[in-house]
Write a structure and sequence with these properties.
This protein is an alpha+beta fold. Helix content is about 15%, strand content about 25%. It has one domain: Peptide deformylase (Peptide Deformylase). A hairpin with a 5-residue loop joins strand 6 and strand 7. Bound molecules: zinc ion. Zinc ion (ZN) binds next to helix 2.
């Protein structure tokens, strides 16, 4: 279960369109496991193919379960592992909510991003089985953030106000991050 190297911001692969997965094979299941291991190794809650240089439409997600019974879960589905292959958003909330995001490919930064409050997603398992899922809260945010990665979009692309993107304490200098000069088309 090797941990893969992360692709970081300013690498052109993070700006490219990922291609649909065509082969549902044991190799795809191994890729998903590597993605989960890589995500956990970096304490992330989601990871998309392009973030490890795999230009395919696949992402994984996992919200950590509470560490004790007293702790409130971050989401009703905390502790579950999700793998989405060839995902498509089939419905989305008309209303948006603002929430904090970070990205394993953009170390040293956090931002406030407005996104639809819930989404309905149709996708496949690594075995090729179709499923759909309606998610709200943090899970909806993760799904939309990861799906953006499959289309070469990074969360700062949704931020136009400088004070909604800020550096956090990390080892070394945070990489430079560009904000869009005009709001992105929705
Ligand atoms: Zn990300």
């Amino acid at each position: 279960m090797p941990i893969r190297e992360l692709v970081l911001v300013n690498d052109p692969r993070l700006r490219a369109q990922a291609a649909p997965v065509e082969q549902f094979s044991a190799e795809l299941a191994r890729l998903a496991q590597d993605m989960l291991d890589t995500m956990h190794a970096h304490h992330g809650v989601g990871l998309a193919g392009p973030q490890i240089g795999v230009m395919r439409r696949i992402f994984v997600a996992h919200i950590p379960a509470p560490e004790s019974e007293e702790e409130e879960p971050l989401h009703p589905r905390a502790g579950e592992t999700f793998v989405f292959v060839n995902p498509q958003i089939t419905r989305r909330a008309p209303e948006t909510v603002e929430g904090e995001e970070g990205c394993l490919s953009i170390p040293g930064w956090r931002g406030l991003v407005s996104r639809p409050a819930w989404v309905e997603v149709a996708a496949h398992t690594t075995g090729g089985e179709a499923f759909s899922l309606t998610a709200d809260g943090l899970l909806a945010r993760i799904i939309q953030h990861e799906m953006d990665h499959l289309d070469g979009i990074l969360y700062p692309d949704h931020i136009t106000e400088r004070d909604k993107l800020w550096p956090i304490e990390t080892e070394g200098e945070p990489p430079p991050v560009e904000l869009p000069t005009k709001p992105p088309a929705v």
